Amino acid sequence: MKGLKFNILIALSIMLFTSCNNGIDNTSIGIDSNYSVYRLQKLILATGAIGDSFKWEVISENGETTLLSEDRECLFVADKSGNYSLILTIKDNGEEVVETSAITVLPEDIEYKASMTKVLEFNPAPGQFINDLPEYEEGDTKEIIRQKTEEYVLNGSMISLGAFGGYIIVGFDHTIINKPDKKDFFLGSNAFSGSSECGIVCVSIDKNNNGIADDEWYELAGSEYNNPETKKNYQVTYYRPEENKTQVPGTNGVVDKEYIKWTDNMGGEGFIEQNGFTNHSLDYWPKWSNSNTITLTGTLLPENYIIKSNGQYYLNKYDWGYADTYANRDTENNSFDISWAVNSNGEAVKLIGIDFIKVYTGLLQNCGQIGETSTEFLGAKDLNL
């Protein structure tokens, strides 16, 4: 250990949060000699050592070496049970110390589900199906609606996210591994030819292992991410319409073309139109919300509709990387690669896996008789399990 400086006051710690051991192990060396963790659950490690560089590597039973991290913190997840060797290399002032630990990866007690197992948040924007999918009943709170949404989706039913920015966050009973050169998860929707209501997809890994989606989100950079017409950090505020407001009739089935006003952070404004073409509630505002405004932020995609000669709206597909764009039978184009993830600066990030998926409506447009463009969601599935 000579030549290495260690700050004893802040303690050199290894943090292990797993279903095997939810405690925190503090050592003066940096890592313990042995760890155990269940398959597809995270082993979270960190050192308080002071050094010029850090390198965490893991060696599998077949001798394959994988670089896990070059920071003070490290995440380890394995999709195969067995024995692994963890190596921490610390360099400081030209000297090097190498510490080795054994990791035993255990098979899970209860077999994991490939499909999502929970809805953590449901926060839709105003839309024509918001109070129908799932159905609002008098007295429902936001939490009751979240529970209903979870029940809907887990039973194979569809929910709507409303206009731009409306979102859902879902989770699994395990971490989805990021497999090299392979798509990692599937998202279902109700898309069909001429009806692509494209949704942005974001992912997050539960770094603090608290089961809450409060860690950093990463957008999957789809085909339109670098399109000059795509607007990053776009924010919209929707305003609750006055009760019994006077309708301003429009065309093509629009009963109120000035129904729900919105403004954005780029000086724009407009309305979510109300239409009577489909069989749905004419109340687009989430009935469980007591707020007079809803503000949502994200990436806004370019408008994708055209109006055909018969007056019908046709919503074009984007090439790849978006939810609710291709029919469910097109497994390839409804599957997503964690390696597409970028941070808030647009820089590619390398994630060992993810725990949460967020989908939100990426368009802000009215389409006459079919109403506002609203991404629909029909479940998520791990393709690597």
| Cα-atom radius of gyration | 24 Å
Unreliably modeled segments = 1-28
**Number of DSSP strands?**
28
- Number of helical segments? 1
- Topology as a string of helices (H) and strands (E): EEEEEEEEEEEEHEEEEEEEEEEEEEEEE
Structural class: mainly beta
Into how many domains do the coordinates divide? 2
Strands side by side in the biggest sheet: 12-14-26-16-17-25
Strand share of the residues?
35-45%
Question: Judging from the principal axes of the Cα atoms, what is the shape?
Answer: elongated
Question: Strand count, sense and closure of the main sheet?
Answer: 6 strands, antiparallel
Distance between the termini: 41 Å
Q: Share of helix among residues?
A: under 10%
Offer a quick outline of the entry:
By secondary structure, this protein is mainly beta.
Please name the defining characteristics of this protein.
28 strands; 2 domains; mainly beta; 385 residues; Immunoglobulin-like; six-stranded antiparallel β-sheet; five-stranded mixed β-sheet
What does this structure look like?
The protein is mainly beta and 385 residues long. The chain has 2 domains: 5-106, Immunoglobulins (Immunoglobulin-like, Sandwich), CATH 2.60.40.10; 118-382, no CATH class. The protein has 1 helix and 28 strands. It has a 6-stranded antiparallel β-sheet. It has a 5-stranded mixed β-sheet with strand order 4-11-10-7-8, with no helix packed on it. Strands 20-19-18-21 form a 4-stranded antiparallel β-sheet, with no helix packed on it.
